[in-house]
């Protein structure tokens, strides 16, 4: 009997995803969640701890407590065409 059930769940930007693998890289999480490759992924931490940036090559353990991530687009601090004030 084949068990195709995905056992490890995680959330990206509030949406639930599942994985059959107990460990995923940041790049794999972004791919599963259809997050653009140039976005930065963060792991939400509890309480007053700062959220943890997750690089594309970093492996995250999905076992245990359900992980919540959020994706942030690349920072833009203005463009050269903007008039100076």
Task: Walk me through what this model shows.
The chain is mostly beta strands. The chain has one domain: Roll (Ubiquitin-like (UB roll)), CATH 3.10.20. The protein is 8% helix and 34% strand. The protein contains 1 helix and 7 strands. The protein has one helix at 26-32; strands at 8-12, 15-19, 23-25, 40-43, 52-54, 59-61, 67-72. The strands form 2 sheets. It has a 5-stranded mixed β-sheet with strand order 2-1-7-4-5, covered by helices on one side. The chain has a two-stranded antiparallel ribbon with strand order 3-6. A hairpin with an 8-residue loop joins strand 4 and strand 5 (52-54). The longest helix has 7 residues, at 26-32. It is globular, with a radius of gyration of 16 Å. It starts with 7 loop residues before the first strand and ends in a 13-residue tail after the last strand.
Topology, pairings included?
Elements: E1 8-12, E2 15-19, E3 23-25, H1 26-32, E4 40-43, E5 52-54, E6 59-61, E7 67-72
Parallel strand pairs: 1-7
Antiparallel strand pairs: 1-2, 3-6, 4-5, 4-7
């Amino acid at each position: 009997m084949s068990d195709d059930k995905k056992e490890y769940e995680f959330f990206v930007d509030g949406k639930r995803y599942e994985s059959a693998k107990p460990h995923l890289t940041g790049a794999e999480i972004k791919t599963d969640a259809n997050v653009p490759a140039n976005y930065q992924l963060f792991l939400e931490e509890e309480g007053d701890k700062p959220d943890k940036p997750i690089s594309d090559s970093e492996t995250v353990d999905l076992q245990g407590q359900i992980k919540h991530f959020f994706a942030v687009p690349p920072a833009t601090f203005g463009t050269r065409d903007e008039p100076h004030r």
